[in-house]
Amino acid sequence: MVDLQTQYQHIKADIDRGIQEVIDTASFVKGGKVTEFQQHLEAYTGAKHVIPVGNGTDALQIALMSLGLKAGDEVITPTFTFIATAEVVALLGLTPVVVDVDWETMNMSVEAVKKAITPKTKAIVPVHLFGQCADMEPLMALAKEHGLAIIEDACQAIGAEYTFSDGSKKQAGTMGEIGCTSFFPSKNLGCYGDGGAIFTNDDALAAKMRAIANHGMVVRYHHDMVGVNSRLDSIQAAVLDAKLPHLDEYIASRQRAAAYYDEAFKDSEHFMIPGRLEKSTHVFHQYTLRLVDVDREALRARLQEAGIPAMIYYPVPLHMQKAYQDPRYKKGDFPVAEKLAESVLSLPMHTELDDEQLAYITSHVLA
Hints:
39% of the residues lie in helices and 14% in strands. The protein is α/β, with parallel strands linked by helices and 367 residues long.
């Protein structure tokens, strides 16, 4: 699904140099490489503050902790997404409220969010799924109307750009009060282990989240709030800082591969290409087809025999997960998400795909 070894060979000298620099200085935790990467990522995204943390899940948890929410407060999130989005809500004793998604973009439905808001609602967590932004302008208007915070889960969409009705543009993760991203190795900007970051333009929130990520500590050994231990280590920062100058190139490579897939499947009755939100670019963390009248498991087995990996993201919506069963929800309540869970299939998508590989993949899918 991802060819990290070939990608590494193209920038091997830069990555090796960065890692060696960390080893030579022995600045393994909170070293200069972390600060350098933070500053470079601020410049790239336009976010006033970037707070590097241990992983994308930590980023979401710290973001929620910074809002001062209380047990029972409701947080709205899509039911079709990776579990971390709801997991952190539940871990903090908050109430996850899940909503359905749009069939074309597979992102959070604005209309569904409107219907889900109650007096207990305190925050909305839109997920920029598979690499394109959720429809942020109407979501932000809703949040403003009801006095809600928005925490963007941009773990799959770093570098995606959203255009507002006035023509202004902002990157995924920089539109709400807080944005979160992941640097898991398979991400468009991935390290060689775990890593994540939080974005905000709010000085007070930034200071609070930095403290929370450091055991709730501002002055050493003085703990002003309950915190966690979450930090991006220097070796991972060195890897990310070597990759960041290539991120736009990586995105363009993924978009070229997606265009090839689009052309191959555009006339098919059985393979529906990913829908696009006109207001957002798509950076294609995943290229996800929706299958129509196709035996998904048989297709996956046939592709596997040909040496082609294919993955199902995600086979079980949040409201149907055993850990999140809730009397408020039952099978059939979120028909779009449930239909997607039964019909999606993601094809290989990475920076190293060439036309020969793409032709091989598409021919076997269509066979």
